[in-house]
Amino acid sequence: MLDPRRRGRESMSFDQEWAELKAKAAMRLDGAPDMDPGGPSPGGADLIVKADDMGKIGHAAFLLHQHLSSAGKHAQSHTEAAAKSLENDGFDMGAALAKAGEGWQGQLQVLLDACAQISNHLDYSVKSSKQDDQFVAAEMQVSKISEYLDVPSSTSDSDAPLVPKAEGPVM
Q: Among residues 48, 41, 43, which one has the least CA distance to residue 129?
């Protein structure tokens, strides 16, 4: 049984059905409150993210990771030496300085992990987006090609292999 919501769409082309669905979505979005304080974006797109922009942000996160990695540990050996010297001289300040140094290194590691995660996630997002785009493009091409094919049913009584027949323009 056909889905009642799809009645009348059997004879629609993909482009017609896609245009109808986009129009319905646009009508629903027109009634939604505007959440963008900067106003609508160019071309009516809700979100525009270019791979170049993500690459720049990822590269900045990578550079920050490198800089923090070296600069954040710059005083570690001096802090440890001062803490040990103060402890050896009987000052309670030595243990407190050692504890502060450990806290600093812990927080530094959190920042380094965050920078690495940002950089890695943006690299993954760019690659994943490209793969998704390639998949959608391939699917769209297949749907266009299938318009020209007449595929016989698989319940054919013949032992002959099923071969699609071209209906559209043949080169």
A: 48
